[in-house]
Write a structure and sequence with these properties.
Amidase; AS_sf; D-Maltodextrin-Binding Protein, domain 2; Amidase_dom; 432 residues; ten-stranded mixed sheet; alpha/beta; Amidase signature (AS) enzymes; 42% helix; 10 strands
């Protein structure tokens, strides 16, 4: 399948200046949807009716007739993962529960995007309640492979070029893994820097709102709208990059590790200093604590609904909730405390070794065949547990399936991380 370039940075600039007409761009995207959606299946029932979006585009154009007064995302169509509440659209969360059980006020981040001039194109497919039970979405690079999850529709829609920006969430690896599998840029902020208000929770202590674009410049633009207290960073200094050696990296497949070593070599040739450092020497314990935390908090989030509608939940989600009900209060409290312990430990290692950002494979390998599984989030889990900011950038492919590198900075250093991501992405692209 042909994957079209729709870099948000260029699109947004052209829409603001008038180089692209908003109505024409919306029509172009609907033509793309008509050509691809029956295969990719990224949208919940398809995007909104084109007449509705065309009317919203006309209203935005009327509101901002002068280019110099247009907001940063003027006329930019956005896909929204179907666990975000959006005014005028139902929330189904990939489930068969009655829609009336899943209602709420519009998500704060959706309100921010609309205030910045964006148009909500529609809801994108999610696994059930953002856990593991997959929807119908396929990887645009190879329809016989998974796009990843749980933000499957958002990643696939951006990769297929049916929207230039999409919202997702990550509780284990649900932004960075699908971004890696689909060959796009994914960003998970420091915990709490994009508000979760109006988003159905899975595990509130580790839920993160995330974003998908095709380009790092576009990601910086979108982040500047969505992230609380955003302060632009030039990223002039070249970061020292750490490679987390040991049991964590041993979780990567042989193919994935070979490609990652190629990526490390490419970054060194581009002038980046690489420091290999043992990290996560207790990775299995971290994995177990995070899994227990997700299960326990999912049980809390779904307590009343599950009691009434347990027969409507997918087997994997029901098992998660039942497992979570067995987690003790003490174990839950310890898992919550461990988030800060891990964050502090990583910060100390970075300070001692002079590391500015970590790099690691975005997934154990390329997207697995089939759509019955969304792939393994194990490479993303510890960074999510610690609540650190992460950017996934494309890094070539293996037999036509994308692979990527995730870049991780210290807590709160989102702006510097995104500034550093551009030269990192360029170095990896040049070597692909």
């Amino acid at each position: 399948m042909t994957v079209r370039r729709t870099p948000l940075g260029e699109v947004a600039a052209d829409l603001r200046t008038g180089e692209r007409d908003v109505a024409d761009y919306v029509a172009e995207l609907y033509e793309r949807v008509d050509a691809l959606e029956s295969d990719v299946r990224a949208w919940v029932g398809g995007p909104k009716p084109r007449e509705q979006v065309a009317a919203e585009a006309a209203a935005v154009a009327e509101r901002y007739p002068e280019p110099e007064n247009r907001p940063p995302l003027y006329g930019v169509p956005v896909g929204v993962k179907d666990i975000f509440h959006v005014d005028g659209l139902p929330t189904r969360a990939g489930s068969t529960l009655p829609p009336g059980e899943l209602v709420g006020r519009q998500a704060a981040v959706v309100t921010s995007l609309r205030a910045a001039g964006a148009l909500v194109l529609g809801k994108t497919v999610t696994t059930e309640f953002a856990y593991f039970d997959p929807g119908p979405t396929r990887n645009p690079h190879d329809l016989s492979h998974t796009p990843g999850g749980s933000s499957s529709g958002s990643a696939a829609a951006v990769a297929a070029g049916t929207c230039p920006l999409a919202l997702g969430t990550q509780t284990i690896g649900s932004v960075i893994r699908p971004a890696t599998f689909c060959g796009v840029v994914g960003y998970k902020p420091s915990y709490g820097r994009i508000p979760l208000d109006g988003v159905l929770p899975l595990a509130a202590s580790v839920d993160h709102v995330g974003l998908f674009t095709q380009d790092v410049a576009g990601m910086e633009l979108a982040a500047s709208v969505c992230v609380d207290d955003w302060e632009p960073s030039t990223g002039d200094e070249r970061p020292v990059l750490g490679v987390p050696e040991g049991e964590y990296l041993a979780q990567v497949s042989e193919t994935g590790l070979d490609r990652f070593e190629d990526h490390v070599d490419a970054l060194e040739r581009a002038g980046f200093e690489i420091r290999r450092t043992v990290a996560f020497d207790d990775i299995q314990a971290v994995n177990d604590r995070h899994d227990g935390l997700v299960a326990a908090e999912a049980a809390l989030a779904h307590h009343e609904r599950f009691d009434e509608y347990s027969d409507r939940y997918a087997d994997s989600t029901a098992e998660l909730i039942r497992d979570g009900r067995a987690v003790s209060v003490e174990a839950l409290a310890d898992a919550r405390r461990n988030r800060v312990r891990l964050r502090t430990s990583l910060a100390e290692t970075m300070r001692e070794r002079g590391i500015d950002a970590w790099i690691a494979p975005g997934a154990p390998g390329p997207a697995p065949a089939g759509i019955d599984s969304t792939g393994d989030p194990v490479m993303n889990l510890p960074w999510t547990h610690a609540g650190l900011p992460v950017v996934a950038v494309p890094a070539g492919d293996v037999d036509g399936l994308p692979v990527g590198v995730q870049c991780v900075a210290g807590f709160g250093a989102d702006e510097r991380l995104l500034a550093w991501a551009e030269p990192i992405a360029n170095a990896l692209a040049d070597a692909s």
